[in-house]
Every structure is written in C-alpha cells, then in structure tokens.
Write a structure and sequence with these properties.
Elements lengths: L7 E7 L2 E2 L6 E4 L4 E5 L4 E9 L2 E4 L3 E2 L6 H13 L4 E5 L4 E5 L4 E6 L8
Antiparallel strand pairs: 1-2, 1-3, 1-10, 3-4, 4-5, 5-6, 5-7, 6-8, 8-9, 9-10
Amino acid sequence: MDEVVGRSWMVTDLSGEAVGDRPPTLHFEQDGQVYGTGGVNRVRGTWTLTEGRLTFGPMVATLMAGPPERMAVERAVLGLLSGPLTVTVAEDELLLSAEDGRTARLVPAPPESELL
C-alpha cells in the first residue's frame, strides 16, 4: 500500500457503474487514518491492511442531504467500506473488491478535489 498512502484517490465507478459528477474521494494516511468525501458528506475513519485484506474502522460522516443520486452513491461507497476488501494496485489505479463481488475503482484525485 506504499503507493496508495499519502495520496487522494477518486472513485470512478462502483461495480462498473459510473459514479456521476461529484465522485467520492479517499485519502489514506500513514498513521491509519482515512478521510475524504462520500460525494455529499465528508467522511473520516481508520484503515488497516492485514494479510492482504483492507478493513476500515467505523467511518463517521457529516449529515448533509444531497440529490438522491449522490446520496445513493455515498451509501454504496460506505456500504462497500464496511466489510473486508481485497486491494489490487496497478499503474495509478486502485481496485477495492468485496467478497460478494462489489467493487470500487479509484484513480489519483486531482489536487483540487482533496479534502482536509
């Protein structure tokens, strides 16, 4: 995960479906913190990588409402992050895969999309 840590990543699709005009982002810190946006709300939590499995600790989010399609994407992203994931990193692309077949494809986020 060295190539993932310290960078912001933007979700481009969920299980092959485009995420719309305001993609969720995640930024992985070396100390195990993760933060970003679900597309509407800011999110924060923890992450660990053990024996090739990526798990997220409880994620907290602000409680803003947004357009139904963005809220659906946010729920899907947070739902995916709630279970153990397999991580595949290949040439500036990060693929998160759940045991049930759900996936999230992420690419490096442009600097203006990084959230602190």
